[in-house]
Design goal:
Elements: E1 2-7, E2 15-17, H1 23-32, H2 34-41, H3 49-64, E3 72-76, H4 81-92, E4 96-101, H5 112-119, E5 124-127, E6 136-140, E7 147-152, H6 158-166, E8 174-179, H7 185-195, H8 210-225, E9 233-235, H9 250-258, E10 267-270, H10 278-287, E11 292-295, H11 307-317, E12 320-324, E13 328-335, E14 343-344, H12 350-356, H13 360-363, E15 365-369, H14 381-387, E16 391-396
Parallel strand pairs: 2-9, 3-4, 7-8, 10-11, 14-15
Antiparallel strand pairs: 1-15, 1-16, 4-6, 5-6, 11-13, 12-13
Length: about 400
């Protein structure tokens, strides 16, 4: 088991950070204009795992398109929840027999709401193991009529986005009606905006990733709160005003927290629209000594891990008594003695690794287990951390260690 030991510098040096491009945008572009997007992507080679997965499966689908056979085409989406949801919809309207599969954890993440919605307009989808989960066998049909469709979007906004992007493949299109409490609404707006664009120049539609940028905003926030000198962290290519990404809200969230006073009590924040920011903001609040109540977080239970449970466990290791319920995460400002050394488990979750890395500023050094999980969204994260003056030592950890 690989672990890294992160030692914080006395002061953070100035550096330009190489952000990844937004995998949320690229995944949508691959759905809408696969050939053009693949052509643009093929000119580069530094993609995260989620983008690589989408590239591989889209190429496979393109090779099969127009030449469907009775034999099954297996599409392995590995750990990508985005690919799972988007391709469930796309395979339903593409001629062929498709088998959609993924990692053990992905096969524990729900897909029933989307499957039920697609079945209601004629899609032929079969569960190959447990009802409501991958793997799926999908007998694609490019002559489906379409019509009105209801979708429960309380688990994921990607259900809605998936249907929006395949609506053009139905003879009568789709009239999509959302039921239940919606989450991550900015991502639905992103999809709607891209559907109005043209693919004349794919490069004009690409953005750098605000979800990844959040960890560097967290870094600066924590450094300021604990009195650590911090140089300029330049984030290449970010555009706040014109970005389609909801996670640019990290700027406003941390600005608001920066003005918080101890007499203000707990900060109450709703993360229904920005669940991917929860871990970075929770760590920022704890290290900045800002008690909080986070609401609108229930879908974190079905991320790469149960992110609520994982977040509470790892913050507790550092002495912050954080608790979670079905839809809340709470820290009332209570401390206990931290474990020594501080060793953070990542639970196969890229955001856990990146959000806890800045904690080395407070504790001097920390260890992070399975640091390779960042490959899912941000392969250059550890390289960029070193640019800021952090020392990283890679070791092998006994599998029995906590």
């Amino acid at each position: 088991m690989t672990t890294i030991k992160i030692k914080a510098p006395d002061s953070i040096v100035s550096a330009e950070i190489d952000l990844p491009i937004s995998k949320s945008i690229v995944s949508r572009l691959l759905m809408l204009w696969p050939e053009k997007t693949l052509d643009w992507l093929s000119q580069h080679d530094d993609w995260c795992d989620d983008i690589r997965v989408m590239m591989v499966v889209m190429r496979k689908m393109i090779e099969t398109d127009g030449n469907p056979t009775s034999s099954e085409v297996v599409l392995d989406v590995h750990a990508s929840g985005t690919a799972m949801r988007f391709l469930t919809a796309l395979c339903s309207v593409k001629s062929g027999v498709w088998v959609l599969r993924g990692t053990t954890r992905l096969c524990e993440r729900p897909i029933r709401c989307l499957v039920d919605a697609l079945r209601s307009v004629g899609a032929d989808i079969e569960y190959l193991d447990k009802e409501g989960f991958l793997p799926l066998k999908i007998r694609g049909n490019d002559t489906l009529e379409g019509g009105r469709i209801e979708i429960d979007a309380s688990e994921s906004s990607q259900y809605v986005s998936a249907l929006m992007m395949v609506a053009q493949h139905f003879k009568r299109g789709l009239e999509i009606s959302r039921v239940g409490d919606g989450v991550s609404t900015p991502y639905v707006k992103m999809t709607a905006s891209l559907l109005k664009k043209s693919a004349n120049d794919i490069s004009e539609l690409i953005e750098y990733d605000w979800s990844a940028a959040a960890f560097w905003y967290e870094m600066k926030f924590i450094a300021d709160k604990i009195g650590r000198e911090c140089g300029e962290i330049s984030l290449k290519g970010l555009n706040y005003e014109n970005s389609l990404q909801g996670d640019k809200a990290i700027v406003d969230i941390l600005e608001s927290l920066n003005s918080h006073r101890q007499t203000d009590g707990c900060v109450v924040m709703d993360f229904r629209d920005t669940p991917d920011l929860v871990v970075a903001v929770a760590v920022s609040c704890c290290l900045g000594n800002i008690p909080f109540v986070m609401t609108g977080v229930k879908n974190l239970r079905i991320k790469e891990t149960d992110r609520i449970d994982a977040l509470c466990k790892e913050l507790n290791k550092m002495g912050y008594v954080v608790s979670g319920s079905s839809d809340e995460i709470i820290w009332e400002g209570i401390y206990t003695k931290p474990l020594s050394p501080v060793r953070i488990q990542t639970y196969s979750d890229h955001r856990m690794a990146m959000a806890f890395a800045p904690c080395a500023l407070k504790f001097g050094e920390i260890e992070i287990v399975n640091p390779e999980v960042v490959e899912k969204s941000y392969p250059l994260f550890w390289d960029n951390l070193q640019k800021l003056g952090f020392d990283i030592e890679i070791t092998e950890l006994n599998a029995e260690s906590n």
